[in-house]
């Protein structure tokens, strides 16, 4: 769902929500959280895709993961589902080889990639094909895809430059004083994306009843601390700003499984923690080379960072490079020795991710 800032306090104080439909899903569906974190800053959507599909940390030290490290096949969520008989397809109405996606998707195991050339670009909204047209065209194309299938869908209306045609706006930002320019455009774009998602949700109600549907934001959309302050967030230091900038929401809907799994709310995790709960819901064992953990279990740790690795749990945030930790609930520095567990976990995640990306034989695991 593009880049999302759903819980902006300035809108809450005004009685206005940026994404009211998505907010309703956060309250109603099987699994939801507003405290999932994305390690990607300043771009590289492909890193977010890789982390979600591979449950592997794509540190920015690797450069563009799709360009630099796709010279071998990967065994992640896609290949696991293929081994269980799923037909795996990806939909993204962008230029076919942008970020070298053709090769990347093939290496991860997708059967087909539907790119810009496969869509009727009726109207451009934001970065490309409007979300409304995208969802409806994807719904039509899925009718011809063999079942069972795994469909990975990447929208564009919530992507920079966030320019929504005037006739598609609903006057959201005009209701709040002091919002203008790029920040206002961003919020209008997310609001439009939310309305498109609501239409898709309603029009696919029958199909989704026996499906697992995951909706999440891929990475930050706001530009930094100043935008966060305008939205009403209290920023006391750089680590707290990072916590808010990396924060993204997730909803997992699975109506046919609600009697079998307890509902979970506001777990702390990151994008590497998206594949494991999908496998959990399907009754498939999660392989040990995935660095993420299931959001259905307690103790998930979030990861963020670009040049620095940042670890988070439900009370602490740690900068590995700076060896500096803050308890963000008590708003005080954590003394040395009080975050050794986060420090070691961060190092272990980086080591295992290096093994996967640089082919140091992490796949000595037999899928079963």
How far the N terminus sits from the C terminus, by CA atoms, comes to 32 Å
Helix content: 25-40%
What oligomeric state do these chains adopt?
A: single chain
The fraction of residues assigned to DSSP E strands is 15-25%
The ordered string of helix (H) and strand (E) elements is HHEHHHEHEEEHEHHEHHEEEHEEEEEH
What spatial form do the alpha-carbon principal axes imply?
globular
Uncertain spans, ≥5 residues at pLDDT below 50? 1-13
Outline the biggest β-sheet. 5 strands, mixed
Radius of gyration: 20 Å
Walk me through the topology.
Layout: H1 9-13, H2 20-28, E1 31-37, H3 45-54, H4 65-68, H5 77-83, E2 87-92, H6 101-108, E3 112-114, E4 124-125, E5 128-129, H7 131-142, E6 149-154, H8 181-203, H9 205-208, E7 213-216, H10 225-230, H11 238-245, E8 247-253, E9 264-265, E10 269-270, H12 275-282, E11 302-304, E12 310-312, E13 316-319, E14 324-327, E15 332-333, H13 340-357
Parallel strand pairs: 1-9, 1-10, 2-3, 2-6
Antiparallel strand pairs: 1-8, 4-5, 7-8, 11-12, 12-13, 13-14, 14-15
Helix pairs in contact: 7-8
